[in-house]
Amino acid sequence: MAPDSPGNRHKAFEGMATREVNGVLIGKLWKKYPALCGGGADLFNSTKFPYGGTDVFHPSVGYSGRYIRHWIREHAIASIANGLAAYNPGTFLPLTATFLVVYLYVTKGAYVVVEVQDAKISLASSGTNLHYAVAAADSLTRSGIATSVVSAPSFEHFDQQDESYEASVFPRDGTAIVSVEEYVATTWARYTTASIGITGYGYSASNPSTTIGLG
User: Fold this and answer.
1) What is the pLDDT of residues 154-197, one digit of tens each?
2) Does the keyword Metal-binding apply (predicted)?
3) Span 44-54, mean pLDDT?
């Protein structure tokens, strides 16, 4: 296998957390494409968004930099990134970085992402855990247990919907509804009949070791 083959490039990232892989890739792209700009909240050391001290866009440093220290204001981060992208499209390619759980409050509602006829079970999840629910639903449906999937990024917005919509997402006809999330299950209690989650503060590591650590 050639040193720079796709297989070897994939192996170079084995065992790394997703954010660490993203950091490596963003670092390479940042150097190559001057149109890239943006930044993150106060979590830049954790989100692995690489930048140099002289690359900061700030009065104390100068205005030639491309990295913006947004600090703790995810609504503003999203708005600024959208504005940069909309200004003379193609001039700026904005990137943002924070933890997904912090971005959830700028999203809306809950909705069915995998719909099957006469579902016996509905799996509910959100964010980076959603693909686990989709894979599990596919396996269950193929084994004869029709399973739908719901993405629920924001209960606050979901609770503002009318009753008919809420019932179309989380049926009230006795269908088993199970939440799947690497997070505390307390918030799901009003909507589900069972939950698969965690009871501790959290677990930070690469995906494989996190799965093993959580059992």
Assistant:
1) 888 899 999 999 999 999 899 999 999 877 888 899 999 999 88
2) yes
3) 75
Closest CA to 186 of 168, 205, 200, 172: 200
At the second CATH level, the architecture of 107-213 is 3-Layer(aba) Sandwich (3.40)
Closest CA to 18 of 129, 108, 110, 118: 129
Per-residue confidence (pLDDT) for residue 10, from 0 to 100? 65
> pLDDT tens digits, residue range 91-129?
899 988 877 666 555 557 899 999 999 999 999 998 778
Strands (E), 7-104: 36-40, 67-69, 93-97
Q: Do strands 67-69 and 36-40 pair parallel, antiparallel, or not at all (unpaired)? A: parallel
Options 2.60.40.10, 3.40.50.970, 3.30.930.10, 3.50.50.60; CATH for 17-101 is 3.40.50.970
Spatial CA neighbour of 119 closest among 175, 178, 192: 175
